[in-house]
Write a structure and sequence with these properties.
The complex is a heterodimer of chains A (405) and B (375).
Chain A: H1 7-23, H2 32-44, H3 63-75, H4 84-97, H5 100-111, E1 117-120, E2 136-139, E3 143-154, E4 161-167, E5 178-184, E6 190-195, E7 204-215, E8 219-220, H6 226-234, H7 239-262, E9 264-265, E10 268-269, H8 274-302, H9 310-333, E11 339-341, E12 351-352, E13 358-359, H10 361-368, H11 378-389
Chain B: H1 7-23, H2 26-33, H3 41-49, H4 68-81, H5 87-101, H6 104-115, E1 121-123, E2 140-144, E3 147-158, E4 165-172, E5 175-181, E6 188-195, E7 202-212, E8 217-218, H7 224-260, E9 262-263, E10 266-267, H8 272-301, H9 306-332, H10 343-353, H11 360-374
Parallel strand pairs in B: 1-4
Antiparallel strand pairs in B: 2-3, 3-7, 4-5, 5-8, 6-7, 9-10
Helix pairs in contact in B: 1-4, 4-7, 5-6, 5-7, 7-8, 7-9, 7-10, 8-9, 9-10, 9-11
Classes of the chains: A alpha+beta (405), B alpha+beta (375).
The complex binds flavin-adenine dinucleotide.
Amino acid sequence: MDLNYTPEDIAFRKQVRTWLEQNLPKQEIRTLEDRRAWHRKLYDAGYLGMGWPKEYGGGGARPMQQAIVADEMAQANAPAPTNSLGLGIVGPTIVVHGTDAQKRRYLKKILSAEELWCQLYSEPNAGSDLAALRTSAVDQGDHFLVNGQKIWTSGGSIADWGLLLARTDPKVSKHKGITCFLMNMRQPGVDVRPLKQITGSSEFSEVFMTNARVEKGDQIGKLGEGWGIAQTTLGYERGGRALARVTTYSSQFHRLTEAAKRLRRHGKPLFEDPVVRQKLGRIWSEVEVERYQALRTLTLLERGEHPGAGGSLTKLSYSEFEKRFMELALEILGPYGQLTEGAPEDFKLQIDTAVGDHGSWAYAYLWSRAGTIYAGSSEIQKNVIGERILGLPKETRADRVGGKA
Amino acid sequence: MNFSFSDDQILLKNSVRAALDEQCKPAHVRSMSEDPIGYSDQLWGEMAKLGWLGLPFPEEQGGAGLGLVELALVIEEMGRAAYPGPFFATVVLGGLGLMLGGSAAQKDKWLSAIAAGKARATAALLEEHLDWDPAATAATAAKSGAGWTLSGLKRFVPWAHAADVVLVPARSPEGLSLFLVDPKSAGVTLKPMIGIDLANRWSEMRLDKVAVGAEAILGRPGTAGPLLDSLLRRAAVMSSAEMLGAARRCLDMSVEYVKVRDQFGQPIGSFQAIRHRCAEMLLEAENAHAAVYYASWALTAGAEDAAVASSICKAYVSDAARKVCGDAIQVHGGIGFTWEYDLHLYMKRAKGLEPLYGDTEYHRELIVRHVAAAK
Ligand SMILES: Cc1cc2nc3c(=O)[nH]c(=O)nc-3n(C[C@H](O)[C@H](O)[C@H](O)COP(=O)(O)OP(=O)(O)OC[C@H]3O[C@@H](n4cnc5c(N)ncnc54)[C@H](O)[C@@H]3O)c2cc1C
């Protein structure tokens, strides 16, 4: 075991840092176009799609290098690139399961943010129970006709394309009749209606599909094998992002301790209050343990292994941690913490929100509630961990009666 | 000993719930959230007519002469409805403050006007560093003729923009004193502070040499400390009642939802993970109920442990409400994260009140001081 970074990695980090110093946007990013421009700049510098195959516009880089870039970006408080679902989920799915033609057609445009993507999985009655989805795709010979409704589609309102799960065979057991597609969102049969979130912003949408068209060539994987593909996409626990996430936590943490020096309780700075110190100490150890775990995940990825169900542990760990962290932050900041407007400078948090504008501590607090729900809720992660890692007996569930999967 | 409500108290609770169910629906909360003033005058008039605005005040000032248990019952219902308006600011902060420290003339003037629905009040208890200890007050009151001039910065003054009078603690040459200030006076500037609960309003209040007359002081100069202590205790317990109401609404919505939301071919309420969570939510809500009503009774009755009971109440209920409301979002899944679904109205009410009138740590310190002194 050697937890030092190699000299090459150290040199690479320096190079990334210098690039960021010289290239970070000087002005606040306001429009989608600003964000696309920033995205392109990152891509041109070789900092996006770093691990994707070179022949499709990727960089063929090692996971550690990807992690270093993400980490340096977090350190520099750099704005996020725009095509997060394209980069995080859709691209990797196409890389693993796509045909050569699909790779040539789509990957480069994801990397350059020429085409933005969303993920069309959840439905009103199929959330945790994703395999209960009902949106249908009917074979019309040269194309599929899609009808149904999706919900909670992040980035739906700006997406050009969507990664779709639809039922192609209603007669087989529910996990078997699902197929995965790439669907053009800019067609008459697709109606996107933004939904407002608890945070007040609109990051997700409802998507209605009425006789929407999907080309035959845009089917991913084999007919009826969409469930397995969805499982692997959901498993793209971006291990490389883990380090960056921790860096974001630590800069937020330092912001919080600065505020604790300015606030007072019973006439003394909060930061000198032993109780507050204990709590800050505990949270900081949690941040650091998250960092150690991120390094462990990176080690696996560097060896070319996949964390598999271990991704559930990572996700459960950081999403639950994030809630505790934000609860502590708001507790320490008192009424300042939950202000969205009118907070004095010292007590503000300036973060890049999911839709790109500047967020407050209150926003970060509310957003932390989502992490234990999306991409498989904490309850579902615990079920997965129990069954697949610990090998515990499966829960008795109505949909499993009769020995069906 | 009897820890249950009397028939009159139940009647009061039911009538408040019925009125708010009718007049303070989620649509009302939402529309007031976007309103520049933020509350309905018509509902205010209604509340005056129903006697809620004078509930704890003496009968000679147009009040009903009831205690804090009754007031908590009303406020719990307001939390349940996420009522938008200056009820708490007026009746608890302004009204109870005047009741505790006002002269006969001040009470005659203000309490009867409040009870009749003609005046709104509030108090400016917090400053820049957010220390709830009244001893930390930094605003100043300099002698000027028969009166004073007040200067300082106050933050999180609830509903100051709607108030006719604000109780303002400031340091005069004699020590900590409490003044009645008209927020429309020269030298007062108000700036909105917007929090996650859009239905609850605060202002930053800057006082720049604001002149007040001799009649503006509450009690004698230099004696406001104990008065502010008592007021803070009452505000802590009454805000706990409001958090309790909000948390119960979240609990009720959750229990209803998990019975009807099917996943994996059965109601999610049948999964142990969800069932246990709901059971814990109920446990916290019931404990919070006990803490609120014990403290409300103790303060009204002047029980020996009233002070510590109020701290226990605020510390316990803050934690409980946070857990119940947070869990409610979790068991709702994606729908709980949307603006259109009403859950967040109540969750945000509780979250917004949690750090006010002494947060959990502040009150826990007071609890430990009490325990240490009792030995
Ligand atoms: C901010 C946000 C962004 C999202 N973005 C996308 C997106 O881009 N694309 C997309 O397709 N989807 C997206 N989603 C949807 C997300 O994946 C679902 O919300 C999630 O899978 C939960 O499903 P549900 O909302 O239907 O909740 P439900 O499945 O109804 O769950 C409700 C509650 O029941 C619990 N529960 C369910 N089953 C069990 C069980 N067997 N045992 C124990 N507890 C159980 C859950 O944990 C939860 O607490 C997003 C959601 C959010 C909140």
